[in-house]
Specification:
The structure is a single chain. This protein has 186 residues and is α+β, with helices and mostly antiparallel strands. It has one domain (33-181): tt1808, chain A. It is built from 4 helices and 12 strands; from the N terminus they run αββαβββββαβββββα. The strands form 4 sheets. A 6-stranded mixed beta sheet has the order 3-6-7-8-9-10, sandwiched between helices. Strands 1-2 form a two-stranded antiparallel ribbon. The longest helix is centred in the N-terminal third of the chain and has 18 residues, at 36-53.
Length: 186
């Protein structure tokens, strides 16, 4: 691939909602639709977060279309599978138009079979540079989660463990076994 110029967040935004890209250091990265299982896992996790976040107005949750403007010059805009922004940071986004101008306090990334290890590493590095307080990397096939938190070593969880909101969202805890074993009753 030959890059003729770096893309800006404004140029990405003018491409419209049909353009499925993330922007990492000014370079477009195509985001393909996820398979159903990773999408269902992200939705379930967002639902569980919502039971804590919304009743007490703790902040805002975003789904896979929610864009976060993490870096400028060159620009980086990411769309995690799910995100949480604390209520006190929503003032950073007057008018609530365009990408959220900053990082999510919690980013949720659910692995899909098409995800390349190099792309995941690039995104992990981006989250680290942007000081995203808490990132949950969920791998449904392996039934594991990797927790990336600012100032802490990366932790690897199995389905015997639980995700928790740590200092970002105190009181949130959800067992990975329940997340992975969720199947609707017929």
């Amino acid at each position: 691939m030959t890059i003729t110029h770096l893309i800006t967040a404004n140029e990405l935004e003018t491409m419209g909602g049909d353009a499925r890209y993330e922007l990492i250091e000014g370079v477009l990265h195509e985001v393909s639709p996820s398979s159903s299982d990773p999408s269902a896992i992200a939705a379930r996790l967002l639902f569980e977060l919502g039971t804590l976040v919304y009743p007490d107005e703790l902040g805002m949750l975003t789904g896979a279309d929610g864009g976060y403007f993490l870096e400028r010059n060159p620009d980086s805009v990411i769309e995690p599978d799910g995100g949480f922004v604390r209520a006190e940071r929503l003032d950073l986004w007057p008018g609530r138009r365009g990408y959220f101008p900053g990082y999510p306090d919690i980013a949720i990334e659910v692995s899909s079979p098409t995800d390349e290890p190099a792309e995941i590493r690039t995104k992990m590095d981006l989250y680290e540079r942007a000081n995203v307080p808490l990132v949950w990397w969920i791998n449904p096939v392996r039934r594991t989660a990797t927790v990336q938190a600012v100032g802490k070593p990366i932790r690897h969880l199995t389905d015997m463990d639980s995700l928790n909101g740590e200092l970002v969202l105190p009181g949130f805890e959800f067992p990975l076994a329940v997340l992975f074993d969720f199947t609707p009753k017929r």
